[in-house]
Design a protein that fits this description.
Layout lengths: L1 E2 L9 E2 L3 E2 L2 H13 L7 E2 L8 H6 L2 H10 L3 E2 L10 H9 L5 E2 L4 E2 L13 E6 L2 E9 L14 E2 L2 H14 L5 E6 L2 H8 L7 E4 L25 E4 L5 E6 L4
Parallel strand pairs: 1-4, 4-5, 5-6, 9-11, 11-12, 12-14
Antiparallel strand pairs: 2-3, 7-10, 8-9, 13-14
Length: about 240
Amino acid sequence: VHSSENHGHWESFTATISVGGIARRATAVQNIRKEGGNVVLVDSGDIAQGTLYYVEHRMVEAREFYGALGYDAVTIGNHEFNFGPKTLADNFVTGAKFGIVSSNLDFASEPSLAGKIPATLVKTVGGEKIGFIGIVWDDFASATSPGPNVKVKNTMDAIKGAVADLDKQGVNKVIALSHRGYEDDVALAAKVEGVDVIVSGHTDTLLGDPAKLDKSLGAPVGAYPTVVKSPSGNPVLVVHANIW
């Protein structure tokens, strides 16, 4: 179960159609969990942005809502840095009751975040180890305020290193939480080995069956999930959430 591009919208609002709201999301997640089976709840970034909630509470509200919903893992989008790395660290990372993962950002030189966000995360679900990695777009700093100390690693190297680390931990089910955009993630899926699912974010891309979608949303860009073959021929599933 995945979300993305919350942008501070804790109440429902009307875009093309009436969408969003943390209460609606909580109800949807609860109903899915009641169906049984093994469920993981994840987010691929831009939880925060400029609503009144965010301006007033600066991500404390995000930390509390996501903890209450029982998120398993989230990654960082560009807007999580809007008030700088220390606000992200103090108001969101510290005290979080869910996993936060980022594989292609280097926080070693940023005192407020050093050692606080791992490059990989492992959760045991239904007796199986599930590995999570997190990636953001390379030029994310152009759209936010991470400061001079947060560095971007080479993304392919970061993914390979993260997958290798998970493999050493006995993990062969890997979910990448990506805030890079749908087209980039489809291309990435064809280049990497060891990733099974890419939960894509950033571009608000509509996916799905045109016959089943609200026509007012327009035509979907691709299938949900979009199935891409890795270099070895293994299927990689790319999913993306659209709310606009």
